[in-house]
Amino acid sequence: MPLILLVRHAQASFGTDDYDRLSDLGRQQSRWLGEYFKARGLQFRNIYAGSLVRQQDTARELLSTMGHDASGLVTHDGLNEYRGEALYAAYTGGADPVAQQRSDFKGYWRIFRAAMQAWAEGRLPDMPETWDQFGGRMRSALGAAASGLERNDVALVVSSGGAIGRLLGEITGAPSSTAIEFNLQFRNTGFCELVSVGDSLRVASFNNVPHLEFPDRRHAITYA
After folding, report:
1. Taking CA atoms, which of 21, 99, 155, 156 is between 20 and 30 Å from 144?
2. What pLDDT digit, counting tens, does each position of 24-40 carry?
3. Helices 84-92 and 105-120, interaxial angle, to 10°?
4. 212 and 29 Cβ atoms separated by less than 8 Å
């Protein structure tokens, strides 16, 4: 069956004024993932990533490490993350998320979880897109990435935690609260294995980080 490797981007710059850039550790995570994929002997028929810098750079770092030609990388906006700043502002009435991240890390995530649930329940009308629209564009992007795959083909798709969580909720028929949990537990450069069965996708594995599961790399298992 065709295989889709759905990868969350590497560690970005959480708590700074520009989250959308990889940290030095994030670049190393990406290279380690590339080494792991290379050791598995993987070759990608389709390669997709969102247009965000952290998504693009994760894809390019791991492909370069594999010695894989990146010229076939397709940019698809449907793989982009939801607008986290807009979500936080809509729920809090305009509070500064970066200031909250710096002053009360745990408090920030409590508020953010509640904001996501309010969005999923349609209680945040000021968001740029609805929860359903978010899920729809992610499904469309995965459909494009799976297009043309034949038996034993592999596709690489680099996206973000919220987008992956939303898609997994759709595939498994889980409620929005579970999709939110998928989002908040997804590790940087963690990946899911999805198999394409007819017109449907099935989850074969979830949130894998075998490239980080060594004693000297456990510090590199990160979530933001």
Report:
1. 21
2. 999 999 999 999 999 99
3. 90
4. yes
**Other Cβ atoms within 10 Å of 103 Cβ, number:** 10
Q: What is the model's pTM?
A: 0.95
* Separation in Å, CA 87 to CA 45, 90, 95, 224: 35, 5, 11, 16
Residues linked to residue 208 through DSSP beta bridges, in sequence order: 191
As a whole number of angstroms, the distance between CA 57 and CA 96 comes to 27
DSSP 82: P
Q: The CATH number of 3-80+129-220 is which of 1.10.443.10, 3.40.50.1240, 1.20.1250.20, 3.90.1640.10?
A: 3.40.50.1240
Report the C-alpha gap between 111 and 71 in whole angstroms.
41
The DSSP letter of residue 157 is: E
| Residues 192, 217: Cα–Cα separation, whole Å | 20
